[in-house]
Design a protein that fits this description.
Order of helices and strands: EHEEEHEEEHEEH
CATH class: Alpha Beta
CATH topology: Aldehyde Oxidoreductase, domain 3
Radius of gyration: 16 Å
Distance between the termini: 23 Å
Number of domains: 1
Number of helices: 4
Shape: globular
CATH architecture: Alpha-Beta Complex
CATH superfamily: Molybdopterin biosynthesis MoaE subunit
């Protein structure tokens, strides 16, 4: 299940949907939140934009790649857009698998590739004004390491 939405999500509800299948021995989740600092500046909020249709297509492709490399049962990707305040949830990744190693690896892969491949644009409201964020070199390096390890064409 892939959703791009303005509304918040409830982690307990999303977990319950994932954990209902008794063939899975592992459920791994990740939640990203708006933090109060970035690059040495105080952050007061975040605005996220996306390219409707294309964003969901890219997220579907990332999910498909994960399924090609790990035995996954359920996958949930939720990413919020719009104006968010400190502490609000931005993203939820949840995966289930018969085995924990696959679930952990797939969850990490999904968030790493989402950060570098999905067409989201972030603008931070900082103590020094607002600024658009660029992709971080370390995120690009992490994504490239996955591509090399799994032989994924970019």
């Amino acid at each position: 299940m892939i959703r791009v939405q303005q509304n918040d999500f409830n982690v307990a509800d999303e977990y319950e949907k994932l954990a209902n299948d008794n063939q899975d021995g592992a459920v791994v989740t990740f939640v990203g939140k708006v933090r109060d600092f970035n690059e040495g500046l105080g952050v007061q909020g975040l605005s996220l934009e996306h390219y409707p249709g294309m964003t969901e297509s890219v997220l579907n492709d990332i999910e498909k790649q994960a399924r090609e490399h790990w035995p996954l049962n359920h996958v949930t990707i939720i990413h919020r857009v719009g104006d968010l305040t400190l502490g609000e949830q931005i993203v939820f990744i949840g995966v289930t698998s018969p085995h924990r190693k696959a679930a952990f690896a797939a969850c990490e892969f999904l968030i790493d590739f989402l950060k570098t491949k999905a067409p989201f644009w972030k603008q931070e409201l900082t103590t020094e004004g607002s600024k658009w964020l660029n992709a971080k070199a370390c995120d690009d390096q992490t994504s490239q390491q996955w591509s090399n390890k799994l032989n994924i064409k970019n």
